[in-house]
């Protein structure tokens, strides 16, 4: 099976139907012990230091892992991806473009996915057959999510990991399906985690994955990972076809659409506060202004750059924020008790 790199979640049903093995370049980059080599390579080849580490990492992964073909999302994700894929084309990599239309109209989404299907020469029936198979796997990832926020048995990191891997099913849907089944069985056998503060994580998945362990060192835990959850297409059962499924995907579209789902999850999961992660030099950092003005919940914005672990300053900010949330929650509980 031919490998094809993806720069973020795309309709992998189309790629699998066409006989490809999708590989999420982000997951290779961020999990490599020598992840900084990819960044260094990109900078040696001319990428400026004022470009986010993810873009440089994707470039390095493509070259050092011999990726010959990729799909780059040029609308609805990173504003620098268009330039990235042009440079990768210069390096001899075959590039396909995909867009999540900013109009967010059903017709435009259908048109984009239709063009994607034409590019890879697959029929609607082929794509829908794959979609139904993947939706069975998605249900298992969603069950791990439920075990996180409802039964309090899965950790925030496990929630992050198993949902983010739905972007490419770890390169093998069959093997990933088995992995999820084993994880569900093991998690189900645990005692619930006892933590007072219930946190939501919003924004792009972190380079600093140690944030989950750090937070759980206090009286807090993450019970919601926004974008990672969207990678599972948690509302897929309501979608009649692949067009509706990708129309309902919140991440690439406008913030008003995104906030509607955030508000539902804040209430359902009984969140006390939110950590909003943004990446240095990314346009999405500006969204923090809008999100804080619209969400009726405390929000702390933290920023990552090229390090894959939290720095001392960010740890101090997180600790102070969690102390404040705990004080407020305990004071509120005392008032209710009196």
From TrEMBL:
Cofactor(s) it depends on: [4Fe-4S] cluster
Signal peptide residues on this chain, from the entry's feature table: none
GO MF annotations in UniProt: hydro-lyase activity
Record protein name field: Benzoyl-CoA reductase/2-hydroxyglutaryl-CoA dehydratase subunit, BcrC/BadD/HgdB
Pfam families listed in its UniProt record: HGD-D (PF06050)
Highest taxon above the source species: Bacteria
Family: Belongs to the FldB/FldC dehydratase alpha/beta subunit family.
């Amino acid at each position: 099976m031919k490998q094809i790199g993806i720069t973020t979640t795309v309709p992998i049903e189309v790629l699998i139907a066409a006989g490809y093995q999708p590989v999420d370049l982000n997951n290779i980059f961020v999990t490599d012990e020598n992840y900084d080599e990819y960044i260094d390579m990109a900078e040696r080849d001319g990428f400026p230091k004022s470009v986010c580490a993810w873009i440089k990492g994707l470039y390095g992964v493509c070259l050092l892992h011999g990726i010959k073909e990729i799909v780059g999302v040029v609308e609805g994700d990173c504003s620098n991806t268009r330039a990235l894929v042009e440079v990768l084309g210069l390096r001899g990599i075959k590039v396909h473009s995909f867009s999540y239309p900013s109009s967010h109209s059903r017709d435009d989404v259908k048109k984009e996915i239709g063009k994607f299907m034409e590019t890879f020469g697959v029929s609607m029936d082929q794509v829908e057959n794959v979609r139904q198979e993947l939706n069975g796997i998605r249900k298992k990832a969603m069950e791990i999510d439920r075990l996180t926020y409802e039964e309090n048995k899965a950790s925030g990191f496990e929630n992050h990991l198993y949902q983010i891997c739905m972007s490419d099913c770890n390169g093998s849907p069959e093997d990933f399906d088995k992995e999820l089944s084993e994880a569900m069985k093991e998690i189900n056998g645990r005692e619930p985690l006892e933590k007072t503060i219930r946190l939501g994580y919003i924004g792009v998945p972190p380079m600093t994955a140690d944030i989950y362990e750090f937070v759980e060192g206090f009286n807090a835990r993450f019970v919601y990972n926004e974008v990672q959850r969207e990678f599972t297409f948690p509302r897929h059962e309501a979608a009649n076809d692949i067009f509706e499924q990708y129309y309902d995907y919140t991440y690439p579209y406008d913030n008003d659409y995104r906030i509607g789902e955030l508000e539902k999850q804040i209430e359902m999961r009984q969140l006390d506060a939110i950590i909003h992660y943004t990446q240095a030099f990314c346009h999405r950092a500006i969204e923090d202004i809008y999100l804080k003005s619209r969400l009726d919940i405390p929000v702390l914005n933290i920023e990552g750059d090229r390090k894959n672990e939290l720095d001392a300053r960010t740890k101090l900010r997180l600790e102070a924020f969690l102390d404040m949330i705990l004080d407020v929650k305990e004071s509120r509980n005392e008032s209710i008790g009196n």
